[in-house]
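Session log. Operator J.P. requested a structure for one protein chain; no other inputs attached. Running the standard single-chain path with token output.
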Amino acid sequence: MKKFYNFLLVIMYVFVITGIIRADDSDLIFSHRYHNSEVEAPCAACHEAAETSENPADNLLPAMETCFTCHSEGDTECSVCHKDPENIPDEYPRITDYIAKFPHKSHIDQSVECLTCHTGVEKSENVTDQHLPGMASCQNCHSDLEKVEYCYDCHAATEKLAPVDHMTDWKNEHGPASLTQLESCQTCHVETQCAECHRQDNLDHVVHPLNYVNSHGIYARNNKDNCITCHEELVFCYDCHRQQNVMPKNHASVGWSNLNTGGRHASEARYDLDNCITCHNDNLGEPVCKQCHEEK
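Structure written below.
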């Protein structure tokens, strides 16, 4: 047990040191908070290129000449912005692979505020802080999950978008996760997609065991609410029964129907027409009876 705790301490130490290094790995000294709240400089004052940018890999960082529009080139000491004025790099690292497709221009043209996506940057004191939007933030505006190839509006077709846990036997194991992590699932999926997939493949033979087509009637009578979880409309039952010419036993009995008196089906219809219409209807149209019984 002691070894385990020592191992955890080492891991925590690595994370802390890594965090310190990352927070201090830039030569620049810059406070977004100061420029935003005290100077009240608009984002475009430094990131003017964003207004015409169509590609997320565009360089939107300000050049030194941009800084000199406010800071006097002759009077401002280099150490105000640079930790090591003697070794100022020619260029600074920037993010080029965050997302495949993103046009700043169209978002700015639609008056989307910078802070809508870059939440928290107005309070940042460190130039290495990354205030990039997560998918949940994007979906506040872009949420058409049923759109064909919706993901590739922003992502490249070559990207592997599935989470790590989807790479294993996810098709057979995702059921429990969908019950306990539904909100996470809905980041990418809508509930209709579940029904579409489960209808195509009889994924669980416990629900629809073999020979279910011949035995489902008994189950359906007692568990109608469960059936309509996937088979939302009752017309689904009607259409299938008609196509397969499935009829109640009494429909095949002698004397069920004749052209003179109508047979037994006539008396059944007079007694309980609603029961007949359960199958003999065209949903929102005229009762099927009219096909044989014209109005007189």
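Operator note: Confidence is low (pLDDT under 50) at residues 1-24.
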